[in-house]
Amino acid sequence: MYKKLLLLFIILTLFFIPILVRQAPEFKLVDQREEKYCDAMITVVGVDEPIPLEEYVVGVVAGEMPADFHPEALKAQVIAARTYAARNTDKGMKPIAKDVSAQVYRTESERKERWGKSFKDNEKKVRKAAEDTKGQIIVYGEEIISAMFFSTSNGKTEAAQNFSGNPVEYLQSVESPGEEDVAPTVERKQELTLTEWNRKLGFNWDANQFRELKLVRNQTGRVQKIMSGQYETSGRQIREKLHLASTDFNIAYDVNNQIVHITTVGYGHGVGMSQYGAEAFAQKGWTADQILSHYYTGTKIQEINLPEDRCLKSS
Asked: What is the model's pTM?
């Protein structure tokens, strides 16, 4: 009798075990870091629908930096662009412009048109830079910084105080060597007739004013102000009104032909990260973190922190 019961138990056990195994619930391992990250939605003026922040920075890097730059330079640009957006949109609460008044954003269709046959390769490079730095922004203390950047320096970046009159601890002048080796053009030349010069600047100059002209430069070599007799204005005003490449400029006047010759060095306002400087450093082996800590003095990189009700959770 005992042997018959034991045999029955074994048969029933062998029958039910496969059924229990098939009905056991599936368990998935969840990456806790992925669960914690969430993506802000960015409203871009002129774009129909809000864009996830991580998608937005892909479009900004495509609009602001050559895609053939070193991967570490691209990553530095992604982090700067993400930081700029986080601060200027209040982490998605305010809209942001699509052009140079903020930072240039290119939609996917615009990227395809711009890159042509190189679209797939360029898109892959830029997206990898975004993925490798996902959620990273630059802070000074607990504050998201104003991550200003520009194209090319004259060998030094500009201090915020010289540019705007307001000192910013993390936007100091720093050395930016080697750009002439990677940038297609560092020096540019421009000519204006005397009539154009006076019209654009609102001046009434003749040869005498050019003879008395003084360019007052700051410690970065850029023109802080120009003076001639009773005339005085800032180098920044001259750059903006004449659409000069930078405020590191020289002026020469051809009396016989009444032509103003202007030579500029660098491109952009000069404050924050130089993009070609980032490329030069990357080619020397610097990481994105090293590049950013150099151009933004005393800062650190951390993940963006968003309230639960203000973000699109990652899948």
From this structure: 0.84
